[in-house]
Amino acid sequence: MRLRALRTFSFVSFACAALCLAAQGQAPVSNSQPQTTPQPAATTPAAQSNSAEISSQEQPTTFKVNVNLVLVRVVVRDAAGKIVGNLKKEDFQLFDNRKPQVISKFAIESPESEVAVAKPAPEPGETTPAPAFIAPQRFVAYLFDDMHLQWPDLQRVREAANRTLADMKPTDRLAIYTTSGQGMVDFTDDGIKLQQALLKLMPHPIGVQQSNPCPDISYYMADLMENKSDSQAIQAATQDALACRYQNDPKFLAQAGADAKSTAMQQLSVGNQETLVALRTLKDMVRKTGSMPGQRMIVLVSPGFFNPENLQDESDVIDRAVRENVVVNTLDARGLYTVDPLGDISQSGPTSPSAAIVEQQYRLDSAREDENILAEIADGTGGSFFHNNNDFDTGFRRVGIAAPEYSYVLGFSPSTLKPDGHYHALKVSVKVPPHLSIQARRGYFAPKHQANPEEMAKQELEDAVFSQDEQHELPVALHTQFFKSSDEDAKLAVLVWVDLRKIRYVKAQGRNNNALTIVSALFDRNGNYVIGQQKKIEMRLKDETLKGNLGSSGITLKSSFDVKPGSYMVRLVVRDAAGQLSTENGAVEIP
């Protein structure tokens, strides 16, 4: 089940004459007084000239982006298992299909760098801001794979997860999600609501579960039979069907073969669907968690699952998680897992010794494949993989407490990357010192088509909104105003002041040219995205305009939101045509 869309910006056009409050000399509005609608200024030649110099548009902004940049998150540990955080770019070597690559992007990241501190946005004219408001600092989304989890395992892990809720801190926000889409709770600090959601978790497989399947064919074995034409698997399944349906009567051998093929096709269809839904739900969870303003983690609780046909989706999950700085920790819900050499004694099973040996080997191979995807996702995102252990209390504390102290993000741009969808194996190594262990993604898929620059530009701006980092490359200031029309309704104004004289312009045809893209967004007290607006200002200013009143006072642009009383974090992103960026966080409390 796909999650609903999370980010929707409202593109609103506006008239400059109504918004350039500072240029028109309008007084700021107090939070305690109702706002009044300003009267339009008289039309004068000067006003007509200024309005022609500043205009608004509703077209997408185009940024320069590198569509071929591949990001690799790396966690390095010494011989004692301690995280190493003092390496430099030149210490790393990165290989794509065994070919050395030039590392063009390098960053050292830590969980502390993701904590967003929202300062109360002052009203215009305020000089002493209120004390800083600390936003929620850690977001942990538990994703229970209830399509693959069987009841005994699910019962154990949900009880262990419930016990670890006592470790929640006031700045933590937890969420409960499931691959089936049943019984989910969004990010919250309400422990009772989280406990109730955990206790309601139940298995929700897509296919019908049979207590005594005949023949007993797993998804892994079905893939061997149908996609790889494995004669040994086909023969073992046929012997199984002959034993459990026809009492090993050889005259029914052909019918047993047909039964085995039919069952394999059914298992393949169900298995593919369950894997696809699980991966796409995880991808949506990365997108959702990536919008949170702090440390961001996902804990995937699953017995693992086989993935022969949806490798691109798995690669997309890792790509998105690295870009969104989301760590995905995984917990194998099977615990200390062993495969019974004799199989499940409740099943009829094959009577042929040779078929029994073959099916035993397939059970072992299937168990390793199911576990492999959990390891790959954790390695690729810088996460931890808890497995082969029945102490789930320790497991949940290990995978749900914090991201690695340090991780490295390496980026490279393959010069000969073709949009053919082919898999590229990755290898990361450290030159010195020796005896270090490397945790990193194992590969990626090339795109199947060229990326759309406009779509990439939109994504780049959106990522800036949800990153929560603050930058100050443009001379802007954030202010807020609100008034309550009733006990239940309020209007919040986000005001952005821009110092026109300190912006870099491109001189052309006697004008000073630049464009500003401005995004204002609101997040609730739990860090969930509420609403946003995007605007674009085109400026073609004359020299005398910059030297006059408009240049000295700057302009103030307003975005208005209808909201309910409560606590909000305001996120502001301003970017100009040259790629200069300013981002700020503010906080407002509407009683």
What this model shows, in words?
α8 runs parallel beside α9 (311-324). The longest helix has 38 residues, at 253-290. Strands 1, 2, 7, 8, 19, 22, 23, 24, 26 and 27 form a ten-stranded mixed β-sheet that branches. The chain has a six-stranded mixed β-sheet with strand order 11-10-9-12-13-14, with helices on both faces. The protein has a four-stranded antiparallel β-sheet with strand order 6-15-3-17. It has 14 helices and 27 strands. It is 30% helix and 28% strand. It is α+β, with helices and mostly antiparallel strands. β13, α10 and β14 (385-386) form a beta-alpha-beta unit. The chain folds into three domains: 9-64 and 453-590, Immunoglobulin-like (Sandwich); 70-110 and 406-445, no CATH class; 138-209 and 236-400, von Willebrand factor, type A domain (Rossmann fold, 3-Layer(aba) Sandwich), CATH 3.40.50.410.
**Biggest sheet: strands, sense, closure?**
10 strands, mixed
The CATH architecture designation of the largest domain is 3-Layer(aba) Sandwich
Strand fraction equals: 25-35%
Mean pLDDT: 82
Q: Return the CATH class of the largest domain.
A: Alpha Beta
